[in-house]
Amino acid sequence: MKKGIIFDLDGVIVDTAKYHYLAWKKLANQLGFEFTQEQNELFKGVSRKRCLDILLEMGNLSATQEQKDVWMIEKNNDYLAYIEKMDDSEILPDVPKILTLLKENAIPIALGSASKNALPILEKVGLAHFFDVIVDGNNVTKAKPDPEVFLMAAKKMNLSPSNCIVFEDAVAGIEAANAANMISIGIGEKEVLSQAKFIFKDFTQISTDFMKKLISN
Ligand code: G16
Ligand code: MG
């Protein structure tokens, strides 16, 4: 059966986590508390709305939905200012090599991201043309670890979930891929992504042979 590959964006294709971190940190500081890189780990793969709720819990603060909406807009505007300056130098190592190999083998490529800014980021770094399907935070109602984002990507590729392979850097994303009955491949630390079927530190550790086996029928 024909295979399809679904990529998460942040932490797999580009490292935008550092920009999310700076924008959330600015908001936390403005609200009177610190926000560390370690705490930012909890935000990976998590929707903007949920991130704000976690941040407020960290600061022991509560707020009306109206106030939360204002803070989310502020955070996003700061984040947009960072991604505005992005270019292809921010693509993570060997990502173009893997995308090219998939294209050469006529394998459908999808994006499955929690971000509402996914498309502008792909365009900024010059990778948008590789993607046949984009499902992002604008399309889904249920955030990872719910499998909705990946199931929608499979449907748009006209593939059954069991023929889809997901590259993910977040625990919630691996859980979502497993729940979708897809092959999950973790990009990051073994200890963190232990639920993934395969785990690699980054794409430089993935051989062409491995990729060819993965996409073979
Ligand atoms: C990314 C990040 C999360 C971020 C989320 C929403 O998910 O990992 O930290 O909160 O997108 O982003 P935005 O505020 O741009 O809509 P993913 O799924 O690409 O890793
Ligand atoms: Mg991610």
Automatic annotation (TrEMBL):
Catalysed reactions, semicolon-separated: beta-D-glucose 1-phosphate = beta-D-glucose 6-phosphate
Positions that bind Mg(2+): 8, 10, 168-169
Keyword Isomerase: yes
One Pfam family cited in the UniProt record for this chain: Hydrolase
Source lineage: Bacteria, Pseudomonadati, Bacteroidota, Flavobacteriia, Flavobacteriales
UniProt binding sites for substrate: 8-10, 24, 75, 113-117, 144
The family this protein is said to belong to: Belongs to the HAD-like hydrolase superfamily. CbbY/CbbZ/Gph/YieH family.
UniProt name for this protein: Beta-phosphoglucomutase
Alphabetical list of InterPro entries matching this protein: B-phosphoglucomutase_hydrolase, Beta-PGM, Beta-PGM-like, HAD-like_sf, HAD-SF_hydro_IA, HAD_sf, PGP-like_dom2
Cofactor (UniProt): Mg(2+)
GO biological process, one term: carbohydrate metabolic process
SUPFAM superfamilies registered for this protein in UniProt: HAD-like (SSF56784)
Catalytic center residues: 8, 10
Keywords associated with the record: Carbohydrate metabolism, Isomerase, Magnesium, Metal-binding, Phosphoprotein
EC number: 5.4.2.6
Enzyme's top EC category: isomerase
Positions bearing the site annotation: Important for catalytic activity and assists the phosphoryl transfer reaction to Asp8 by balancing charge and orienting the reacting groups: 113, 144
Gene Ontology molecular-function annotations: beta-phosphoglucomutase activity; magnesium ion binding
Cofactor note: Binds 2 magnesium ions per subunit.
Source organism superkingdom: Bacteria
